[in-house]
Amino acid sequence: RTATSLPASAAVPIRSAVLMVLSEQDPAVLSTAQGKQMLQRELTQAINSVLRQKEGFGGIDNVYFNSLVIQ
């Protein structure tokens, strides 16, 4: 499945979980390669947690960034 094919019952909680993880990040940490890798792991865990609760599976292996804007 892709994120666009998920039912709204999963898409909205996933978006919320992603925003919560992002809001907890330190811009100085995210400016490093290790910080970005840590963010990938945290987002993967958060998304899979929601998927397990809402859909019965934790189906993503990783999160990939096309670009990351840090303000």
Brief description of this entry?
With 71 residues, this protein is an all-alpha fold. The chain is built from three helices and no strands.
Notes on the protein architecture:
By secondary structure, this protein is an all-alpha fold. Helices cover 61% and strands 0% of the residues. The chain has 3 helices and no strands. It has helices at 8-23, 27-30, 33-55. Helix 1 (8-23) packs antiparallel against helix 3. The relative contact order is 0.17.
As a percent range, the share of helical residues equals 55-70%
Instruction: Tell me the overall shape.
Output: elongated
SS-based structural class? mainly alpha
Q: Number of DSSP helices?
A: 3
Radius of gyration: 13 Å
Mean pLDDT reading: 89
Q: Sketch the major β-sheet.
A: none
**Would you list the SSEs in sequence order as H and E?**
HHH
Low-confidence segments, given as residue ranges, are: none
Strand content: under 5%
Number of strands: 0
N- and C-termini, Cα separation: 32 Å
List keywords for this structure.
elongated; about 70 residues; mainly alpha
How do the helices and strands line up, and which of them pair or pack?
Elements: H1 8-23, H2 27-30, H3 33-55
Helix pairs in contact: 1-3
